[in-house]
Design a protein that fits this description.
With about 140 residues, the protein is an alpha+beta fold. The chain has three helices and six strands; from the N terminus they run H-E-E-E-E-H-H-E-E. Strands 2-3-5-6 form a four-stranded antiparallel beta sheet, covered by helices on one side. Strands 1-4 form a two-stranded antiparallel sheet.
Amino acid sequence: MSTATLPTAPTHTTGYTDDHAKSGLDTTFPAIETWQNQFKAYEILVDDPEFTSVCPKTGLPDFGRLTIRYMPRESCLELKSLKEYLFTYRNLGIFQENIVNQVLDDVVKACNPVWAVIVGDFRPRGGISTVVTATYPRTETPPQK
């Protein structure tokens, strides 16, 4: 009986590290200002069709569309400060998934909405595009189709 071992495929890695994964998350982002809401039960959609950031590993730019949908409670996001907030990402090395989740956390912190949905639709790089969605309140239940 042979005791030879079967050859294993070489381990392939892209070289990403835990530092890459956390990159950008320790950034101090500017506060998003708000103004007092005057109505109930309506939806606001903010669209940034020219959102840009930087890949934390390669330093190459990432381009995409970022949408913020929310139902305001007592306050609404002030758009000029939101624009300045989003500009912070322009030269920041951060993963696309982290962008969407960080924006959601900061929107919730700023205005405590009834609900919010942040979608990052990032343009293809190397033939692959990414769409990341984060919702508030956060749940691990898959969305219904």
